[in-house]
């Protein structure tokens, strides 16, 4: 008996195939940002996927956030006194700034942007060295090799590929170093973000890409950057597990970053974390934020202040009382006062140092130009 | 002595460098199994394994940025850009990071690496495959820019580039890849920063680099029939630049023509001409002339011969070097009302 293929198909009822496993499972972020604290700082029900970090770590996080916020305010004040050329504040983003460095070991690498001055001070780098870039005496004040912290990166997203290379190079040489990249929401539109995440994924490089989505790239809102459901959805296309977190919930930020770092350190490749946060200040002191966002919007975010949230949580855990709060505030004041004092003087700069470190050995042309500048300086000194 | 092509000499330089220094890693597009579209990395993956020589995703900024990170971790990356024009996506990484990291960090971080760029034309390539991009790199402080014109130099300069403490953009003239010469490797020629007199002569100096060197040599040979004895200087390393050798030659001959394949405006040849007249003014009997590609986008294959500096164009320039103390008539009227 002959049957047409159609008839045969009709005759045998299609067997239900066991559904194929979803290849994106384990890569996609949760549909809502991970949150462990209510906006008022009270604990949400515990969850199995993100255990609450050790409370001692959270207390230390609080301390660094308080000092960090004070540092940030001091830096903004220094722009008004003409001591800094410019300062991009990260007020409001303290949970991310501090969480990113707290999740790492000292021998891990950080790849910061211009926004991360607070993170770098939280890493223990001398604040004057951090501000060298913005003070204007050199491009990078700290020793990146010694501090395992790349120079603050201004060409947006370019650091994403460096981190992939560095992390791969470290594991290539048998070290279990993790690299954490700070990047903004706007910069995720740059090609180098995509190339970096893709390289890290292909080479299984232990990198955590940490996006601080503060909703604006200078004036441009997130809706102009992407049509993705959220920035954490950008990982799945590269095979990179991703998560989104309430970036103003310090407990959740640290919990999510701890997991991301552990994933990378275990040799499972990169991880993408998007933190939903908000910068309370303009893009820099030179920016006028009223041209692109209204006061009500900023006010609404005041209610989600990461510092008060963490303080409430720690008090509830009996890890903080009035005396401790006052003592930490005092530490922050001392930190700021010392910074103010040290930034009060004009740094000495040596024009002849311009010729150092262009190459390992200066070219004959640089030797010539150095000599010319040296003569100019000598002549102007004689005139004076 | 055995004969070898420049392509093979470059391949040998990579292999010897990988053998001598286990920090050296070679990567790029199609450099692994295939051995590169020009076969410069042929056999390296088979010999050294796919951790030392590997293919990357197709992304040039990614390749160079990845090399920055690898260099920061202590490795010595040698990356291949598949063609001149396809290095442009990496330009930001090269200019803002590769070139500047040492300076930005006052020497705390350096990223020694070699970025190999097959460049220039004369091979009948279609658009985007024949650019002379050396001026972009030479204009960027912090980069060294090197271009061999001989088989021995190809080997020696590449070895030196890989050993160098600074990033080197290594420009390989495609049209010379498969030209052979007698050599016995491992050759070591003059170090970075030294130009070389390829042919001594008394009457005028032709300064050339990369793909223009054979053109200059051929022109010098042809000039003999016209009674000119021309010296040819091969620049070899555009950065660091050897003012001394070139100025010494021009002071001897009193006349100079700079030959480059790249379009002329704001090019390396313009820089050389300016430097020569600054240093040799009183020795010059004629203005320094340039023979270059035309100031046009690289032409389609059937028209490239009109664009490329030819022996005839070089000889025409030599003829205009005011041998009878006559100024070039074109410049007597330029700028005056017609
Ligand atoms: C390649 C590049 N393009 C433009 C700029 C100028 N710029 C500096 S910061 C910025 C906005 C970045 O926004 P985002 O990534 O969201 O980070 P945020 O400043 O909000 O922390 C722009 C456009 C730059 N630094 N680099
Ligand atoms: Mg932003």
UniProtKB/TrEMBL annotation, chain A:
Domain Dehydrogenase E1 component span(s) in chain numbering: 62-338
Cofactor(s) named in the record = thiamine diphosphate
**Entry's CDD domains?**
TPP_E1_PDC_ADC_BCADC
- Does this entry carry the keyword Oxidoreductase? yes
Pfam families cross-referenced by the UniProt entry: E1_dh
Q: Which InterPro entries match?
A: Alpha-ketoacid_DH_E1_comp (IPR050771), DH_E1 (IPR001017), PdhA/BkdA (IPR017596), THDP-binding (IPR029061)
Its Gene Ontology molecular function terms? Answer: magnesium ion binding; oxidoreductase activity, acting on the aldehyde or oxo group of donors, disulfide as acceptor
Any idea which UniProt keywords this protein has? Oxidoreductase, Pyruvate, Thiamine pyrophosphate
Q: Report which superkingdom the organism of origin falls in.
A: Bacteria
Q: Locate the compositionally biased regions of type Low complexity.
A: 1-10
What SUPFAM superfamilies does UniProt report for this protein, alphabetically? Thiamin diphosphate-binding fold (THDP-binding)
Q: Give GO terms for biological process.
A: branched-chain amino acid catabolic process
Region Disordered, annotated ranges: 1-33
Q: Electron transport among the record's keywords? A: no
The name this protein goes by in its record: Pyruvate dehydrogenase E1 component alpha subunit
Protein's organism: Micromonospora phaseoli
From TrEMBL, chain B:
Q: Which CDD domains match?
A: TPP_PYR_E1-PDHc-beta_like
Transketolase-like pyrimidine-binding domain boundaries: 4-179
Could you list this entry's UniProt keywords, alphabetically sorted.
Answer: Oxidoreductase, Pyruvate, Thiamine pyrophosphate
The record's listing under Gene3D superfamilies reads:
3.40.50.920, 3.40.50.970
Cofactors: thiamine diphosphate
Q: Name one GO molecular function term.
A: oxidoreductase activity
Classification via PANTHER family = PYRUVATE DEHYDROGENASE E1 COMPONENT BETA SUBUNIT, PYRUVATE DEHYDROGENASE E1 COMPONENT SUBUNIT BETA
Q: What is this protein called?
A: Pyruvate dehydrogenase E1 component beta subunit
Protein source organism? Micromonospora phaseoli
Q: What is the lineage of its organism?
A: Bacteria, Bacillati, Actinomycetota, Actinomycetes, Micromonosporales
């Amino acid at each position: 008996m002959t049957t047409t293929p159609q008839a045969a198909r009709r005759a045998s009822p299609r067997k239900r195939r066991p559904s194929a496993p979803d290849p994106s499972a384990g890569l996609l972020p949760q549909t809502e940002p991970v949150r462990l604290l209510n906006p008022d700082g009270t604990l949400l029900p515990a969850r199995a996927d993100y255990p609450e970090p050790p409370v001692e770590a959270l207390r230390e996080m609080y301390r660094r956030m308080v000092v960090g916020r004070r540092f940030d305010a001091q830096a903004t004040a220094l722009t008004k006194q003409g001591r800094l050329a410019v300062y991009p504040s990260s007020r409001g983003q303290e949970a991310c700034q501090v969480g990113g460095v707290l999740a790492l070991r000292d021998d891990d690498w950080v790849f910061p942007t211009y926004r991360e001055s607070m993170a770098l001070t939280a890493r223990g780098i001398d604040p004057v060295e951090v501000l060298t870039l913005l003070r204007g005496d050199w491009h990078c004040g700290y020793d990146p090799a010694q501090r395992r912290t790349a120079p603050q990166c201004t060409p947006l997203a370019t650091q994403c590929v460096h981190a992939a290379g560095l992390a791969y190079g470290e594991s290539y040489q048998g070290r279990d170093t993790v690299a954490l990249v700070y990047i903004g929401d706007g910069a995720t539109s740059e090609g180098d973000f995509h190339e970096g995440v893709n390289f890290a994924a292909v080479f299984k490089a232990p990198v955590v890409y940490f996006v601080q989505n503060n909703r604006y790239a200078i004036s441009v809102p997130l809706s102009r950057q992407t049509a993705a459901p959220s920035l954490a959805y950008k990982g799945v296309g590269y095979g990179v597990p991703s998560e989104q977190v309430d970036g103003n919930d310090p407990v959740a930020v640290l919990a999510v970053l701890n997991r991301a770092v552990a994933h990378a350190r275990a040799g499972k490749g990169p991880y993408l974390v998007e933190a939903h946060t908000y910068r309370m200040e303009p893009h820099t002191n030179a920016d006028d934020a009223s041209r692109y966002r209204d006061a009500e919007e900023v006010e609404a975010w005041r209610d989600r202040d990461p510092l008060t949230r963490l303080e409430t949580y720690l008090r509830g855990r009996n890890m903080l009382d009035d005396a401790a709060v006052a003592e930490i505030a005092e530490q922050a004041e001392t930190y700021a006062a010392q910074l103010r004092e040290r930034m009060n003087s004009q740094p000495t700069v040596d024009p002849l140092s311009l010729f150092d470190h262009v190459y390992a050995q200066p070219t004959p042309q640089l030797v010539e130009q150095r000599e010319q500048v040296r003569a100019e300086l000598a002549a102007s000194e004689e005139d004076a | 002595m055995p004969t070898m092509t420049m392509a093979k000499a470059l391949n040998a330089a990579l292999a010897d460098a990988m053998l001598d220094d286990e920090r050296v890693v070679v990567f790029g597009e199609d450099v692994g199994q295939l051995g590169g579209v020009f076969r410069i990395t042929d056999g390296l993956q088979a010999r050294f394994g796919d951790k030392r020589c590997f293919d990357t995703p197709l992304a040039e900024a990614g390749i160079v940025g990845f090399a920055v990170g690898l260099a920061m971790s202590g490795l010595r990356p040698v990356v291949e850009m598949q063609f001149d024009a396809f290095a442009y996506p990496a330009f930001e990484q090269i200019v803002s990071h590769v070139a500047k990291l040492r300076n930005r960090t006052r020497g705390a971080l350096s990223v020694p690496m070699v970025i190999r760029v097959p460049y220039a034309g004369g091979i009948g390539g279609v658009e985007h495959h024949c650019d002379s991009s050396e001026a972009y790199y030479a204009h960027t402080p912090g980069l060294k820019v090197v271009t061999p014109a001989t088989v021995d130099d190809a080997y020696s300069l590449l070895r030196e580039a890989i050993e160098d403490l600074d990033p080197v953009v290594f420009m390989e003239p495609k049209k010379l890849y498969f030209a052979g010469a007698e050599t016995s490797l491992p050759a070591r020629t003059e170090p970075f920063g030294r130009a070389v007199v390829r042919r001594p002569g008394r009457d005028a100096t032709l300064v050339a680099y990369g793909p223009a060197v054979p053109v200059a040599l051929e022109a010098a040979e042809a000039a003999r029939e016209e009674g000119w004895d021309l010296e040819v200087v091969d620049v070899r390393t555009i950065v660091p630049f050897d003012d001394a050798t070139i100025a010494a030659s021009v002071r001897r001959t009193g006349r100079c023509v700079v030959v480059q394949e790249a379009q002329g405006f704001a090019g390396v040849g313009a820089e050389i001409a300016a430097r020569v007249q600054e240093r040799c003014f009183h020795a010059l009997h004629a203005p320094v002339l340039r023979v270059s590609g035309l100031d046009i986008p690289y032409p389609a294959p059937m028209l490239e011969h009109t664009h490329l500096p030819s022996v005839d164009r070089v000889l025409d320039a030599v003829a205009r070097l005011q041998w009878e103390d006559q100024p070039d008539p074109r410049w007597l009227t330029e700028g005056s009302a017609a």
